[in-house]
Amino acid sequence: MSVITKETAECLNVKPGRRKVKFTGIDGIVKECPTAKIALWLPGERKLTRTEVLVGAANTNILGFDVLYGRVWKLPDGSVWSFAGRGDGEIAWLEEDETKAINLLEMSIPLPPSRITNVKQYPLPAAAHSGIDGVVTDLEKRGIITRTHSPYNSPVWPVKKPNGQWRLTIDYRRLNANTAPLTAAVLNIAELVTQIQGASHPWMATLDVKDMFFMIPLQEHDKAQFAFTWKGIQYTFNRLPQGYKHSPTIAHNALAKVLSEIPSPQGITIYQYIDDILIGGENPEEVRHTMEGIQEKLITLGLDIPPSKCQGPAQEVKFLGVWWIKGAASIPPNTLEKIEHGQNPSSVKELQQVLGTLGYWRKHIPGFSIIARPLYNLLRKGKSWEWTKQHETALELLIRELRLFQQLGPLHPTDPIHVEWGFSEHGSHCNLWQKGPEGPERPLEFSSHSFNDTEMRYSDLEKGLLSLVRAVKRVEQIRKGQSVIIRGPFRLLDIVRKGTAPPAGIAQKPAVCKWYAYLESINDIMPITEGSIKVSKLQKDIDSTLLFQTPPSKPSPIQEAPPLKEGSDLKGVWFTDASSYRQNNEWNYKAVALEVATGEKLSETGATEWVGHWAVNDWQVNRVPVWQTDSWKQLLEIAEQRLLHIGWVKGHDRSASIAAQFNQQVDSLTRLQKIDVVSNEHEWERLLEWLHIKRGHTGRADLYREGIARGWPISVKLCEQVVTACSQCRLRLNKDHPSKAPPLHIRDKKTLWHTWQIDYIGPLRPSGGKKYILVGVEVISGVTMATAVTAATGENTVHSLKEWFSTLPLPEEIQSDNGSHFSATVVQDWAKEEGIRWVFHTPYYPQANGIVERTNGLVKQFAKTHESGWHL
Questions:
Q1: CB half-sphere exposure, 547, CA atoms < 13 A
Q2: Which end of the chain has fewer CB atoms at under 10 Å, N or C?
Q3: Cβ atoms 61, 3 nearer than 8 A
Q4: Which pLDDT belongs to residue 188?
Q5: What is the per-residue pLDDT for 237?
Q6: Bridge partners, residue 608, by sequence
Q7: Do residues 801 and 786 make contact, with C-beta atoms less than 8 angstroms apart?
């Protein structure tokens, strides 16, 4: 350990720290001496060397071996001094930043498993090549990357810094999509901002750790997955790389562990977001002392804390992009100026950048989701770019509100919180204010939510209940013992507390019951009172007196039939039943009427209770058409012309009642059975020819399905003979068959990320409960995605595609076969919502779906070689 004298320390203004070290002198006496941290400028080196020294332990200054180790100095007289590391006689010149990652934080935890992903390098701008060459060389010298041979590969995607230099970044999107999850420990920025705002610290200080990820070494078996290729040489990272989905969580945990070991005075709170640290407290000296303690600890570990990134202690600091003024969250003036002086966007990309910036500050904009709706509509897939006066007005209003409410808070511990809620046609909004004897009126935050498709069809009462619940839940998250006063476009909370039931016929009854239960019990959680009516400028015009009125209706002309008993008059009594079975994705039905009732409880309820209400309300429930509307209308017309009773009969009742006997009789008549006829096959062939023409010259599968549905004793071979012998079919096949057409050019007029082909593989040998694999290929780049699923269903298809395109750009077109797992309603509805065009290919024609078909073979081969765990 190095030593400096007390005189040298006083001359250099070096103050000893609290830490003391015991040492044994040459006289054998054990002594205790304080330490201090200093920076040394050593011969031939371009950078200061930081080290810890003993102050006053000797009468002369001594360089310890911790500083000398590994260094070589050549003196003017020609002699060479080498200290146990480099004996080649050359001067050891340290490159700039070479010492940045010598001392490291703890070894990274074992990373979650990742499937092998290998993505070829994209074309790069010419300027990036020269800019990245030096970066790669520097990282290799410092040991952050090393050369390797790995089955993994991710493309390099350099980013140009504002100062003109280039940053090496790797596109790990494919690797991230194929990596198992890891529980995230990083707080959401919005939640962290809310915590700091609620604490209202008068004094704050900030620190920023430079190159935090590069301070954490990877375990040897985890390095291969981060491989990338540059100029024909494959490299991988030895340290935690940027762009990996779990890097923030791992880095956050490593630094959090270090911070937890640093003692802090009572009343001091330390906030951390990955590599950014904020210290808040009531006393500036305590904040300063805690800040210096953290700095000393981190510097000892070899972490770089740039002085330019340190602030405070002060009453105004910038943290996470927010300007904090005595606990109030404010938008930095330079940020607001850039937003105000920005030009109107001229493309989708520019609009996305503008909305991204405004979205970060959405808490400062009342009704952000409602005002910005026209702008977000312009970003929808398939929407042509047309910037109109409506969009310009919406953008101007967002910026004006941002300027008006530049500062939010602070949150006072005793002043009551005022909540103003409301809703428009497209969304709900909630404004939180605080005013009272301890301070002026000030906004705390503004929140808003767009209504989804289901919520858009809610009645005004349901929208009001949903908006009120959202407002109460939001204030519940930020309050700290304050009382709450809530106001809205109509008084709703007191009505719910009094037990006023919602009107009959309201949709979404389970949701309404849930909202009622929450609002009725809210007083047990926090004191809340309902103030006077407050109508915001975004509120939809409604008549609150009609909210709890039962919608117009009229009594149903259909009456419920009395129970059928022995001796009852059976004239005009009908029993009905039906049966069906499914074959080759098609249903076959048979219905019989034998003096009968509906046989289905839902029909009985709808006919006797709801049909009048539906008729008055245009056969809709909250703008949703009633299922089988035409059938209900026809039933209502019959009932209006003559007396009609409908009753329900218990199915498969084996009792001796007269109703059960009639029901069993009609049930037996509805059973679908094949006709057992012994006849000449030639006769059946003639009958199939007639059916083939009647069906429009469809194929053998359709012909066989229709014949079996009629109970005919036919075979697939016979159907094939009929289709083959058809002269019209032969002519059409020779002319129009895909094999006779010119070769397809699947990639013609396609751009990168425009089109994907997808297909299912399976069933395979089960692995981890999974038997199928959904495979997708981007037709231009060949980027491949694969997800193991339990079954080939529409729900699994949608879930997998959402996972893929959470990290990849949404395509404009998806191509597949017409299997039920792709043609299902849930899949097609999702594609329609995302603006994706879905193209179905000709079955059994691999040329159309050939790109993904070739990939299927590779995936199958991989699954066979990893039978015990291919799902990973």
A1: 21
A2: C
A3: yes
A4: 78
A5: 92
A6: none
A7: no
Enclosing H/E stretch for 205: strand 203-208
Report how far residue 7's alpha carbon sits from residue 56's, in angstroms, rounded to the nearest whole number: 8
Tell me the H-state helices in 372-447: 373-377, 389-404
DSSP codes joined into one string, 208-238:
E-BT-GGGSBPPGGGSGGG-EEETTEEEEES
Cis-peptide into 763, omega within 30 deg: yes
Report CA torsion sign: 762, 768, 774, 778: negative
3-state SS assignment for residue 350: helix
Pairwise CA distance, residues 174 & 804, whole Å: 9
- CB-neighbour burial class of residue 462 (10 A; exposed 0-12, middle 13-18, buried 19+): buried
648: Cα separation from own chain's centroid: 47
Find all residues with CB under 8 Å of 356, minimum gap 6, and list them: none
Mean pLDDT over 646-650 rounds to: 67
Q: Kindly report the three-state secondary structure assignment for every residue of 113-146.
A: CECCCECCCCCCCHHHHHHHHHHHHHHHHCCCEE
Say which residues have a Cβ less than 8 Å from residue 231's Cβ, sequence separation at least 6: 133
pLDDT digits (tens, 9 = 90+) for 539-551: 777 666 656 665 5
In the structure, what pLDDT confidence band is assigned to residue 87 with cuts at 50, 70 and 90?
A: very low
d(CA 577, CA 119): 59
* Neighbour tally for 784: CB within 10 Å: 18
Instruction: Determine what percent of the chain is predicted with pLDDT higher than 70.
Output: 76
Q: Is 408 exposed, middle or buried (0-12, 13-18, 19+ CB in 10 A)?
A: buried
- With a cut of 50, say whether residue 599 has pLDDT above it: no
**What dihedral do alpha carbons 847, 850, 854, 857 form, nearest 10°?**
-80
Collect all residues with Cβ–Cβ distance below 8 Å to 462 and sequence separation of at least 6: 506, 507, 508, 511, 512
- The model carries a pTM of 0.52
* Helix intervals (H) in 757-824: 794-804, 820-823
pLDDT of residue 595 exceeding 60: no
